[in-house]
Amino acid sequence: MAGHSHAANVAHRKGVVDARRGKLFSKLCRAIYVAAKNGDPNPESNLRLRYAIEKARQFSCPKENIERSIKKATGELGADNYEEVLYEGYGPGGVAVLCEVLTDNRNRTAGELRKAFDVAGGNLGSTGCVSYLFAKKGVILVNQTAIAEDELMEIVLEAGAEDMHPDSGFYEITCDPKSLDAIKQALVDRHIEIESAELTYIPSTTVDLDVELGKKMLKLREALDDNEDVQNVYSNDNLPDELSDQV
Questions:
Q1: Per-10-residue mean pLDDT, the chain, length 247
Q2: What is the rounded distance in angstroms from the CA atom of residue 246 to the CA atom of residue 127?
Q3: Domains 83-132+205-241 and 134-203 share a fold
Q4: Which three-class secondary structure state does DSSP give residue 173?
Q5: Which CATH code is given to the segment(s) 83-132+205-241?
Q6: Given the DSSP bridges, would you call strands 170-175 and 207-208 parallel, antiparallel or unpaired?
Q7: Coil, strand, or helix at residue 8?
Q8: d(CA 202, CA 205)
Q9: Model pTM score
Q10: CATH (one of 3.30.70.1560, 2.40.50.140, 1.10.760.10, 1.10.10.200) for 6-73
Q11: CB contact set of 133 (below 8 Å; sequence gap of 6+)
């Protein structure tokens, strides 16, 4: 099972919501705040904000938390100062890792991430060291019980999708980021339920890990996910089947 499997990552995040609800909501609301602050606070005219709100709703983030984040962005409730930073590094076995971060203290965050990489047997790298191995794409998941594969394929290709394949009980649809909204609308128009839809980084190559390195990679992912400044983690690891139930 690939560590970058979008279906596996979504299932994992939903599985830890109860255990880490407060921290997850904080991350989701921080993304909403930055999207609203850097653009129109109206999600109808701010695509990034709309995606951030939809993602928060997927994880049952309270409506009042979402509204409070937008009000803070507009200055109604004070203001924060977050920077968007993409940290890059190498995990166990030379795995390429990208971390999307929203932080109010780059020095603190860099130190915490460097420690997490070091403990896992990797190292935090310089800008550009691994990002060239990833392409930013839109990814949509549809449950395989919702529609026949051939029918769904016809709909999404006509709407601008680049590819579609089954993955862990879902159909995973990939597209150019600019086509994400059109494909979502095509599915909504046909009353096809969407499990998740977001922008993500997809690796061009993968690194096969044995069980020992795979366990270290899982610990690195857990440490990065636990960091409140880290919004998303992307990697090109391919975990052995023995560890698939731990993703």
A1: 55 55 84 89 89 88 92 79 92 96 93 97 95 95 94 96 91 95 94 90 94 94 92 91 68
A2: 30
A3: yes
A4: strand
A5: 3.30.70.980
A6: unpaired
A7: helix
A8: 9
A9: 0.82
A10: 1.10.10.200
A11: 96, 203, 204, 205, 236
